[in-house]
Amino acid sequence: MATDLRLRRSEEIQGDIVAGFKKDNVTLLFLKFEDAARARDWLRALAPQIATTRQVAEFNAAFSEARKSSGGDDPKTLKATWLGLSLTYEGMRQLSATDPFEQAPPVGSGLEAFKEGSAKRAGALGDTGDNSPENWLFGNGRNQQVHAVLTIASDTEQDLTATVTAQREAAAEAKIVTIFQQNAKTLLGSRRGKEHFGFKDGISEPGVRFFDPPNPANEEEVEGHPGTRIIPAGEFVVGEQPAPGSFTDFPAWARDGSFQVVRRLSQDVPGWWSQVSVKLKELKQAKAVPDTATAEWLAARLVGRWRSGAPVCKHQDRDVPNDPKASSDNDFDFRDDLEGLVTPLFSHLRKSSPRAGLQAPDPSRPPFDAKELDGRRIMRRGAPYGFPFDPASEGPGGPDDPRGLLFVCYQADIARQFEFIQADWIDQPDFPPGRNPVPGKDPVITEADDVDFESRGPDGAIKHTPLHFQQFVQTQGSVYAFAPSISTLKALAEGRLTGQSQGRQGGQTSSRQDRGYPCDDFVAVPDQWRKGGRSQFWAFHGPQCRRIAVEDGAAHTDHPVERDAALTTWPCLRGVERIDCVLPMADLQNPAGKSWYWVFHTTGGRQQYRSVSITCGGGTYTDALERPDRGLSAWNSLVGVERMDCFLPVPDQQRVGGKSWYWAFHTTGGRQRYRLISVADGAAHTDLCERTDRELSRWSSLDGITEVDCFLPVPDVQRVGGRSEYWVFHGENYRKISVADGSGHPDRKIADDRSCDGWASLV
């Protein structure tokens, strides 16, 4: 049975949440709406530009493959710029002109945290004194309230700068104020992948159920990444199944979205390392560490990993920077180090994620299993900002230059996940609980009084050495926001909340699961084309297919014929998780009642195609797999294509001179383009690329569309008066266009976008 990786194909979930933008250059724009109506116009234009999980996941897979092929170097020609948008509670209220919560959020819930905002909850998170909101650069809840956070991420600085400029101008035209701009960038050279203290970052991110392929031998771990647990998707994406005991009573508008925390954390690099040296002397005087211990040795224990990322628990004496496996190692826990003698209990690694090393309050019980802590995991994004510290530099890089970490994380429940980790683990001296003396706070990012450094004395007994750490990481800004689904963004652009009348997610299933859209493709039922004044189609959507009918005539009334059935009920589609597109073989349509098709589908992040047939007769249909899956490389006309999205036959060039022509719409490098191809009649079906790739902007009828899902021909307007009409489906909307016969094949838009809710057969 094929592994269910359906989240990889989601066009509802924003791309940074589970796929991750993973770009070297990032800018966050913190925005304030001055005019709600104009802000909605701005959002209406912006929504189609927001990157989806499907786009980002496919680009990342292609990037990874290209990197492997080049021996580890980043591919120069494969690049993209992604946009993501999150909204604060007040931002959602402004756009929808109503309170997003029909009732007050439950006390203590993440919804309450979202509504109150981070400034109001700062004290409980240790954001006091120099870290308190009155000192923040953004999100202080007083002046210049944040309504939206626009994330722009790019492979190149040049593309980032151009996009940031364009987005700032578009916002200004809509009377949206950019109250703060935060730039961040991957550090260069030997510092690549590290934060400013010098330690490799982002190693311990979890896998996500239905997105990351599981290890066949252990379905709770990501394939090829031993020790990386697969967490229930509902811990990051609202509406998916969460871990047991997690909050589930969300408003309907939250489905397919995720709650976001953004924090600017400044780092005093020379101060922190100076403190490490001072504390090392104290520990040596107390005979609590080996005489050979260095500042690197102690710093690694404060973090839990060496600079390279190698875990201290596996490499106790020294770093192993030349071991690539060690630098990304997650295959460990702390069951054999419950006292924290190797990796201290107060280390950043153990305070933020105890793994299977958290002792139960009852010492007779074994430690908690890592699975029991799934509901506390977060999905961390973000990047360093500022120039790295260089004491010898005459330019940027001095000790007083601003630098730090732009911290971003996603979760379904801010209170249960981010706030719990921050307040109950990191900033809690008595965690792990029940110890005397208490372990102390996290000394890497907090002011940690009375940290208990444990070691073995000469007699073998545990020795306790108290230490005091000042704080060299300061909170300089914080925002709680929500990254809505693409549908909810579009609804907000119209001044409403998606599904608001449907109640809360915890009590019922969203009606979106019963819809036949977003549509992947339509295939005409071979013997039901314009029969009795109507045409029937199989409508493929996700892992299902339904049969619909469309009447001839001006109204083109549609209605369902058969309800949804799983793709697995089609013998020819066994092993197919979701269809990307279908291309009928032009010269093999219904001869003797049998029609042939090429079916394109993606499995394991790579698109393949197979040949199938459908035989019609007496109102029954049988299908068969005629040729098993092959790679796209078998098509001469598709060289360089990563994923075929849809084909549109050139109306007046079907089976002319023994071949048929098609516009082939495909996504490559995260952006959809199209090319012109031809397929010859005959057993070989020889194909050629007749014209190379062009941008969608060449189609005036597709203005504003960044990705076409599929075309559905208007049955009774095909080559009528020298033109053909089509419904163009993109996301949850559709429009009608026409294409003329003849040179240039002029196209035009006939009807503007409407919601697919208008199709009775698709709801």
What profile does the largest beta sheet have? 4 strands, antiparallel
How much strand? Answer: 25-35%
Apparent shape = elongated
Mean pLDDT, to the nearest integer, reads 92
Number of helices: 11
Terminus-to-terminus distance: 29 Å
DSSP summary, beta strand count: 30
Keywords:
763 residues; alpha+beta; 30 strands
Summarize the structure.
The protein is of the alpha+beta class.
Give the arrangement of secondary structure elements.
Layout lengths: L24 E9 L2 H11 L6 H17 L11 E7 L1 H8 L13 H7 L31 E7 L2 H17 L2 E10 L21 E2 L5 E2 L2 E5 L2 E7 L26 E10 L1 H17 L9 H9 L20 H4 L20 H5 L26 E7 L18 E8 L3 H12 L21 E9 L5 E8 L3 E11 L2 H8 L27 E4 L9 E8 L2 E8 L6 E9 L12 E6 L9 E10 L2 E12 L2 E12 L11 E7 L9 E10 L2 E10 L6 E9 L14 E4 L9 E8 L2 E8 L6 E9 L8
Parallel strand pairs: 5-8
Antiparallel strand pairs: 1-3, 1-4, 2-3, 6-7, 7-8, 9-11, 9-14, 10-11, 12-13, 15-16, 16-17, 17-18, 19-20, 20-21, 21-22, 23-24, 24-25, 25-26, 27-28, 28-29, 29-30
Helix pairs in contact: 1-11
